[in-house]
Amino acid sequence: MNSRSIKNSQPRSAVELEHADKSFLVGLAGQPNVGKSTIFNLLTGLSQHVGNWPGKTVARKEGLYIRSGVSMRIVDLPGAYSLTANSDEERISRDFILQNHPDVIVMVADASALERNLYLLAELLMLPVPVVLGLNMMDVAETQGIHVEAHVLEAALGLPVIPLVAIRNQGVAELIEVAERLARDPVGFQPVRPEIGAPHRDVLTRVRALLDGHIPAPYPSDWVALKLLEGDAEITERARRSLPHTIWRRIETLLGEHEDAILDVAGGRYEWIDRMVHAAVRHPRLGQISLTDRLDRFAVHPFWGLLILLGVFGLLFWLTFALAAPVQEWLDVAVIGRLQMRLADALVLAGAPSHVVNLLVDGVLGGVGIVLTFLPILTIFFTVLAFFEDSGYLTRAAYMMDRFMHLVGLHGKSFLPLFLGFGCNVPAVMGARVIESRAGRLLTILLAPLVPCSARLVVLAFLAPVFFGKVALPVSLGFVALNILVLVVVGVILNHTLFRGRHTAFIMELPLYHLPDARTIGLFVWHNIRAFLRKAGSIILLMSVLIWTLSHFPGDGIEQSYLARFGRSLTPLGHLMGMDWRLLVALLSSFIAKENAIATLGILYGTNSESEGLAETLATQISAATALFFLAVIMLFVPCVATVAVMYQETGSWRWILFSVILLLTIALSAGVLVYQGAYWLGIGILLDA
Amino acid sequence: MLEKLLRLAAETGTARASEFAQALGLSPPLIRSMLDMLTEWGYLKAVVPECSTPCEQCPLHAACLFRSQPRVWALTRKGKRFLDRAMPLERALK
Predict the structure, then answer these.
(1) Strand, helix or coil at A28?
(2) CB within 10 Å: which end of chain A, N or C, has fewer?
(3) pLDDT confidence of residue A569
(4) Domain endpoint, select from A135, A155, A184
């Protein structure tokens, strides 16, 4: 690369200008963020004039570069991706070229993103002006392993190509020298221009023939014909106004018959870009991009991808059980248990009434306290989830899920909102807004509560080890699989009966894999933990106090309480599934917030001694088969009240909410009964109870 | 070329941009550029629009799992209408 640098920091005097024997007008074009301004500043120094383009709010920058008696007035054109008149910037650039007749255009391109940048060049070459291409950011391209051979590109394009690192003032002097030479002698400028795709070549010729002799200056008829085929609104309007009526009618008819000609016009440009890039650019074989490709060969493979997805879920649960469960157990026994004892002693010593002592010890600490011991479980869960998200894997998981959903005929667009449901069902329901059709949106909203949210997963993570010890991990994965299976079955049934959804295919651009950032993970975990603490301090606290009050009054022990009376009214249902009234009440309380199920169990089962936490107490009082049922129902039960409220907000219909509640109740209870009876039939309850 | 891309999008089901690049023998950046142009002309639409609210101000950000969200496109009615009129995939790929 040429290492001569530009030195031009002084304003140009009138004398210097007068002595310039030749002056040229130069347009500096390029897409946004390609380093155009850096080159403009290097060339024009302090001799810049900043104003606005006539009638526009877009800034117009102009400056002088004088060298060896040649003055070059450089106009920095606004950054534009193409010249299709979709924006002020694009319209300004093409109007400048057509109306001000610059002697040369210096187009600056980002060498690391040449495919995108060459589209603008393809359009510039259709205008009557010579072009020099400055390949900026060559250093960035090299860093990314992209090797651009400028001389090969020059030969392929048939126009001068100068490699640059503008930020280090490398190549800019050569660029302006070549631009000056081209401005002096533009006659030999014969670049290789893109051609329109074959199916519409004949149409272009016919439009051009019709335009011949009718196009006013400064528009070239070839260019106008192309723009008409592209459907360019501004040129179409001008042509309609300026062409003789009969000619315009014939052109209009032709355009109406070929309204998709733009695909061949632009397709020809893309084929041209592909040829140029193939000739002159070598992409990296190693490095980040190919690493992503290599990893994706497995991560999105129909078979291996599914296994990896299951493995990731397995890892998520394994880490939660292996790391968090022991800490949770310790908090339950050593912290909350002891705290309850100490608080009771202190309150009794202080002469507090027994109701107050019981409320604070059993109601508040027994309920909210036990829920707070979930903190380590949640921390691990969200940390692992954030790790996979920040690494780029979760989007692959979403892609795998989408493929899977298509296989069973579900609405493809549902996958993103549904995936959000693993964090919380509320955003999953709100995320359904991305689906335009009401039927698709409704179906997604109805399915969202079947995605096991983090609140349900912590209940699972707390109870599974209590009852299933070493097999807690496969049991937990089984429950997650059960939820997904039910989601698919319900989705397929609803999709083929009530909604009759249409298959939607997607094109996805997956982000590159990268090393997760500790701060990003920390923030994600913190936001979620803070939301959980808020819930514990509000709705779970209130529910705990309510459950305690109902289980404490009118007195004569818990078995005679209002809550027990209510719970016993559900006994026939409970018998079918081996549940006593306390489990039924815990289940119902989970409607307020899923964590309440554990808070309620904490209050109703309580703890018997300082050395025994809720987990041990539950293990001695509930059979494994009953626990299986309880978990199955919790996982599939009616969503929490916040989700139901958002479902109403999004559907605006109580009818659909009622439908959802009845549907989920039926599914949850049926699945529970089946799991319980199946487990008992297999002897699981008896085996583990013994 | 653009027609082939649209045809592939319609007939292969959900796929990654890099798979299209492989099928058409083009580089992934070129495919990305083509997808953006097809979106601008109304043949494709962005299904997952970029978030308009910064994460810190978003009510959903605590539960959001998609800060490095994928870019997702789907065919529009205009795109489907075009393909209904155009040639089948086998011929388009020739």
Answers:
(1) strand
(2) C
(3) 84
(4) A184
Task: List A residues 240-279 in contact with B (Cβ-Cβ < 8 A).
Answer: 260, 262-264, 266-267, 270-271, 273-274, 277
Quick check: B62 and A395 CB within 8 A?
no
Alpha carbon distance A90, A86 (integer Å): 7
* Burial classification of residue B50, based on how many CB atoms lie within 10 Å of its CB (0-12 exposed, 13-18 middle, 19 or more buried): exposed
Inter-chain contact A509–B72, Cβ cutoff 8 Å?
Answer: yes
Query: Is the pLDDT at B14 greater than 70, yes or no?
Result: no
Q: Which of residues 40-69 of B touch A (CB under 8 A)?
A: 40-41, 43-44, 47-49, 60-69
Identify which of A442, A487, A502, A457 has the alpha carbon closest to the alpha carbon of residue A598.
A457
Report the domain count for chain B. 1
- Per-residue pLDDT of A644-683, as tens digits, reads 888 888 888 889 889 998 999 899 888 888 887 787 777 7
Q: Cα–Cα distances in Å, from A280 out to A29, A174, A276, A639, B6? A: 22, 20, 6, 58, 27
What pLDDT sits at residue B64?
Answer: 58
CB contact under 8 Å between B63 and A531, yes or no, is: yes
Q: Which residues 433-492 of A are in CB contact (within 8 Å) with B?
A: 434
- Give the range with max mean pLDDT: A94-98, A502-506, A565-569: A94-98
Counting Cα atoms < 13 Å in the Cβ hemisphere of B68 gives: 23
Three-point CA angle A470, A389, A387, nearest 5°: 55
Instruction: Kindly state the average pLDDT of the residues A142-152.
Output: 89
Question: What was the pLDDT predicted at A270?
Answer: 92
Residue A568 has pLDDT above 60, yes or no: yes
On whether any CB of chain A is under 8 Å from the CB of B93, the answer is no
CATH number at residue B87: 1.10.10.10
- Chain length of chain A: 690
Q: Which of A384, A403, A406 is nearest to A394 (CA)?
A: A384
Q: Closest chain A residue to B82 measured between Cα atoms?
A: A260
HEC sequence for A515-567: CCCHHHHHHHHHHHHHHHHHHHHHHHHHHHHHHHHHHHCCCCCHHHCHHHHHH
Q: Which one of A248, A282, A316 terminates a domain?
A: A282
pLDDT at A502 over 70: no
Assess whether A655 and A524 both reside in one domain: yes
Q: Which residues of B touch A392 (CB under 8 A)?
A: 68
**Is residue A269 very low, low, confident or very high in pLDDT (cuts 50, 70, 90)?**
very high
User: Is A389's CB within 8 Å of B66's CB?
Assistant: yes
Stronger pLDDT, A599 or A611, i.e. the higher one: A599
CB A38 within 8 A of CB A166: yes
Domain that holds residue A51: 14-184
- Whole domain around residue B33: which residue ranges? 2-93
